[in-house]
Amino acid sequence: MLRTIFRLRTFQFCPRKLQVEFLSLRSLFSSSTMAKSKFEYVREFESHDICLPNCFIVVRVDGKGFHKFTEAHGFEKPNDREGLLLMSKAAARVMEEFNDISCAYGQSDEFSFVFNRDTNVYKRRTEKILSVVNSLFTSSYVFFWDKFISRKLKYPPAFDARIVLYPTVNNLRDYLSWRQADAHINNLYNTAFWGLVKAGKTKQEAEQKLCGTVSSDKHEILFKTCSINYNNECELYKKGTMLVKKLVAKGKGDSTYNTVYVPLNCDIIQDKFWNDNPQLLNTELDTPVCREITEECQLVFVKTKITSDEDVDSNKKKTHKKKNRNPQRRNHGKAETNGVKSED
Predict the structure, then answer these.
(1) For labelling, which of 173, 231, 260, 262 has a CA lying 20 to 30 Å from the CA of 103?
(2) In whole angstroms, what is the distance from residue 296 CA to residue 265 CA?
């Protein structure tokens, strides 16, 4: 390299020779040369962690420093409805991007995305799945901010993320039950805490009042001190949001369907939810077709893709043929749906 530069500085001026020397310098630093150069060995330092096969992949996205973030942006305490709906909208955008996400559960400043156990997205590379889901969720949160919150975004939010693998249906259901139980415990405490603050207590006094109390004590404090019956609180705050993908007819008698992501604020710990939505745990079952959205669904996120009746029927035929071709797998999936632990 030094020799080439020296030659550029000492030769007598000649346009053709100058062009040759310039091309030699450019080729030295060009990307095509670098890709096949002696420096290429550094790629050997890269490592790729692969998610174990036949496991549900769960990506949990969690707000970083959201206590400070919510205070800076004037979020309502203990729950900000618009802020929670914004989280659900960002999660629905992630589900729209990944067809292999069967459902997503969110509460407070977190959302958990459940990938089908047989997914091969990004060849199950951990860092690829984690980075894309996290970045898409974060960017969607910022992108849809103005549609849900009237206040100006003062600084960009941050989310961390992790991947956890669950080999059986029971493990997955226990994880989601844990997150919903956590939502109930935190919301009960926060409702009591901010109820006391709004009733005239300082934050320190409210914290001391709740120290050592159990669930029944908090219910009593809310009812007697704050005139709040916790059982009448919004289900969105108490149970969190489960996003489920469904097909809904565009109109009465219409043969085309919209793919929608329906937020359900219901109990996911008991069996009823899973019995009503068996397709979430068994990929061989079709996405359910609904003629209408029930009133309990507070918000519907519509995907732009439209599916016709012919596409739905064709999909069912393919699924039926797939089931007949592998009846053993079909029975295994049915056992998994009923909450029986897998033998694998």
Answers:
(1) 231
(2) 8
